Structures are given as structure tokens and as C-alpha cells.
Amino acid sequence: MSALLEEATRIAAQFDYPPEQVQRAVKEYIREIDEGLSEEGATLSQIPTFVTSVPNGTEKGLYLAVDLGGTNFRVCSIDLHGNNTFSLTQAKIMIPRELMTSGSSKELFLFLARQIESFLRIHHNEHFEAHLRRMVEAKEEDLFDLGFTFSFPVRQLGINKGTLIRWTKGFDIPDAVGQDVCALLQDAIDELNLPVRVAALVNDTVGTLMARSYTSPGETGTFLGAIFGTGTNGAYVEKLDRVTKMGNIEHSDYDKSTGEMIINAEWGSFDNHLSVLPNTKYDQQLDTDSINPGIQMFEKRVSGMFLGEILRLALLDLHESLGLFKSSTSSNAFVPKSSQIYRQWGIDTSLLSLVEADKTKNFEQIKSALKDHLKIEHASDDDAKSVQIVAHAIAKRAARLGAVAISAILISTGKLQTDDVVDIGVDGSLVEYHPSFSSLLREALREVPEVGAAGDKKIRIGISKDGSGVGAALIALVASKEGTQRPVS
Ligand code: BGC
Predict the structure, then answer these.
(1) How far does the centroid of ligand 1 lie from the alpha carbon of residue 434, in Å?
(2) Is 227 in the pocket of ligand 1 (CB under 6 A)?
(3) How much distance in Å is there from the Cα of 341 to the middle of ligand 1?
(4) Nearest Cα to 110, choosing from 73, 82, 145, 80?
(5) Does 69 sit in the ligand 1 pocket, CB within 6 Å?
(6) Distance CA 35, CA 42 (A)
(7) For ligand 1, atom 7, which residue shows the shortest CA distance?
(8) What are phi and psi of 143, to 5 degrees?
(9) How far lies 375's CA from each of 306, 322, 347, 370, 391, in Å?
């Protein structure tokens, strides 16, 4: 093996997360679940969502949904057909960077309301104009019900009420923290006189769970919804009597008849104090240079927004001190100053998927990706292979950490002891595009003794595409007290 490959393997080994560590992390996660269910302000937020039932596929109606959660804002209308299917019309708008960090929350929410207005004009103009004509004596039922998917940590106070705890994923608009984000959106909508009522506030993981439950055939409701995308998080069905902090939370009334409630774990902040999470020098540097050091430490090791940056830091290390892109066989390899390898966030996580997918003998795809993404010409076979070794190790660790959260929730809720299949809906770029992420996650699940090989059959994991939009529509429907629901488990 060449010296370069040896070095790459040594760096990759720093991302090993062996079974004993997975198991230790599962124990800590279970402890943090209990803490989060009993007190406010714990590391794992365990946020009650006030959604106490999941859909069974027979729900019907036309709903609006908007989704603010990463780099894009999505506006959609969803027609639920009532037979496990739906049709969806959507517009995706890139959020101007300046609105994500510097601007005031008012500017951001007005921007969002304007997108809703143009969506209605384009796709539902007749309906929209009719609403406008009746606006003077508008009745409640004339309004479009809208589900608002807002994928940041929110202290939820009711089905359409919740205050922002903190921003994540590169957003930072201080004046929004502590405010009711539904009211912010409703105010902006009212300022433009739109016939829209913000009926439900939804985390994307809750939406994913609901959408999966609506579309998955059979009687079993979905148990867990997880996102492995720009950010990462999960929501699951919890017994109400385990949510002991409920009594201390100020909240509006909700339906207690099912005895269950969907909990938004906000697992991105699991183990912020780093008692069990791995912590390489690359993780440390990423955190120090981030806009929220010490926060979202699990997310910073698992989700799409960060894996590319970890890879960049590791490759830069290999390049600067250990000979990557300058080995003897690639004396022509050249890394120009303008290469994204020198820029913070310069490597997109899609590169990890691309690199993982290359099964060609001479790493043709990796070489051309290095050229396209990083302007690196003439990379050698060893260069390309080194990139693959390191990128694989980073994604593998992320998937194993994902398995920690999932198995801990399954164990803590006793879900594995039931006879039913446990249905899990997932979404996000890593599960959708990374060729090995899901199988690496499965592999780690098997290594948790309480799950074991039996988990392969017992746990059904499926993609819940566009889950957050459809899920938001479904919760808007629940909120407007229509349709049939079934108890959450
Ligand atoms: C947010 C969560 C969200 C997740 C996935 C995290 O950064 O805190 O609320 O569910 O990203 O989008």
C-alpha cells in the first residue's frame, strides 16, 4: 500500500465507531429521553407536538402547506384523495442568503407570505379570486387551511402555536427567537390580505411520520419519522403518561383520548456535552468555526450540512501535510487557490454520495467530481481512492450514529416487545442519494443486542418522499377537525 493510502486509512480510522461505543451511546440516549420527557430545557428537547393521532389513509381535502427548513422554501397544495394517495403541486424557492442571517424576522416572513401569494395566483387563481371577492364578509370556512412545516426547534404550545427555541442549519435571525412563528407567518399573510389561516405548526419529522402513515398500506400506523438531510432529527409516538413534564407546560387544550402523542425529539442536540459522541480534531474545528459552537453536536456529526465540511477538513489535512493531490504518480495534480477545498462549506455532501457510488476501476467518476467540484485536475488513482476511503468512513460513522438514536427510541418505548411490525418513515438527501447510508444504518442496528438480527424483519424502514408537505397538510386537516383518525400506535 502506498504511503498516501496508509495515511488515508489512518485518518479514516479516526471515524471508526465500534459496536461497544454504539451501545454506550444508546444507553446515554435512553437516559436523555427520560430526562427530556420529565423536564424542560434538557439536552434532548423531547418536544410535545399536540398531535395525538396519525392518519389512516382515508382523509380527504385540499390543503396548503409551506415548508421552511433548509436552503429552500416550498409552497404546495395537496389534494388528499382519501385512498392512501394524494396529488401535490409545488413551487420551490431558494431563500436569499441575506434573509437567513442578517435581516429581521419580519422581512423573512413577508418574503414567505409573498411566495404563498404568487403560488395561489398561479395555481389556484379562481379559488383565490373568489376568496378575495368575498373577503369583506369572509367566513372562517372560506379560508385555506395551511400547515406550516418549520424545521427548527420550537417550544410548541398548541397545534398552531410555538415559540422558536433556537435557529439551526445556518439560520440566525436573533429577533425571532422566543417568538411564536405561526403568529409571525399569520401576521405577514394578513398584511398581504391573503385568505389563508395557519392551522398547524409542524416539524418536518412529524410531517414525515404523518405522510408515511397516510401512504403506507395496511393497518399499522407509522411509529417514527426521521430526517437525514441538511439537518437531522426524529419524531415518534410516545405514551402520554411518560411525558411527565406535560403538567408543567403552558399549553392549549388537546385531545387526550388516544393516550399518546407524537414527540419531536430534536435529536440534533443529543449529547451536546460530548459524553459519548466521537470527537475528532475535524469535528472540533468544524464546531469552533460554526455559528453555534457547542450546540447541535449530534447533528454536526450526522447531517448533510456538515458531512461535506468534515470531509473538506480531513482532505485538506491530507493534502497539506500528507501528500494528497501531490503524490509522485500525480505530479501534475494541481490544486488552484480558488478551489473550494480552501473555503468553509466548500464541499457539498452530494460529493460524498458521488464518491461512494464510484465502482469504476480507475475511479473515473471521483476524478471528474474532483475536477468539477474542487477544480483539481489530474488526480491519481491513489488520490481518488484516498478520497473514497475517508468519505466512506465519515458517512459510515454518521449512519451508525443515526442507528443510535433509532434503536434507543425503539428500546425505550418497548416497541420491540410488541408483535407488530415497526414502521419508520425517513426522508432527506442522505437516505435518498447516499448509496450506502441506509444499509450502514441497518448494519449498526443489528449490532445493538436488543435489536439484533430480528430487527431486519421487525423494523420496516421506507422513504417518505415529500413527507413534510403532505404531513403538514394532514396535520392542518387534523387541526380543522375533519377526516378520520386512528390512535397513534
Ligand atoms: C432542526 C430540526 C429538524 C431537522 C431536520 C434540525 O436542524 O433542529 O427541527 O427536524 O434539522 O430538518
Answers:
(1) 19
(2) yes
(3) 27
(4) 73
(5) yes
(6) 7
(7) 231
(8) -85, 145
(9) 21, 20, 12, 6, 18
Helix (H, G, I), strand (E, B), or coil: what is residue 258?
coil
Distance CA 126, CA 130 (A): 6
Is residue 238 lining ligand 1, measured as CB closer than 6 Å?
Answer: no
Amino acid at 273: H
Tell whether ligand 1 has an atom less than 6 A from the beta carbon of residue 233.
yes
- Catalytic annotation present for 331: no
Is 460 one of the annotated active-site residues of the chain?
no
DSSP three-state, residue 263: strand
Q: Catalytic: 97?
A: no
The single residue of 74, 155, 166, 212 carrying the catalytic annotation is: 166
- 168 Cβ below 6 A of ligand 1: yes
What string of pLDDT tens digits covers the 489 residues of the chain?
A: 788 899 999 999 999 999 999 999 999 999 999 999 999 999 999 999 999 988 888 889 899 999 998 778 999 999 999 998 999 999 999 998 889 987 789 999 999 999 999 999 999 888 788 777 776 555 555 788 999 999 999 999 888 999 999 999 889 999 999 999 999 999 999 999 999 999 999 999 999 999 999 988 667 789 999 999 999 999 999 999 999 998 888 777 788 899 999 999 999 999 999 999 999 999 999 999 998 999 999 999 999 999 999 999 999 999 987 778 875 555 556 788 899 999 999 998 999 999 999 999 999 999 999 999 999 988 889 999 999 999 999 999 999 999 999 999 999 999 999 888 999 999 999 999 999 999 999 999 999 999 999 999 999 999 998 787 899 999 998 887 633 344 444
Closest residue by CA, ligand 1 atom 11: 231
In Å, how far are 145, 200, 380 from 117, measured between CA atoms?
14, 19, 52
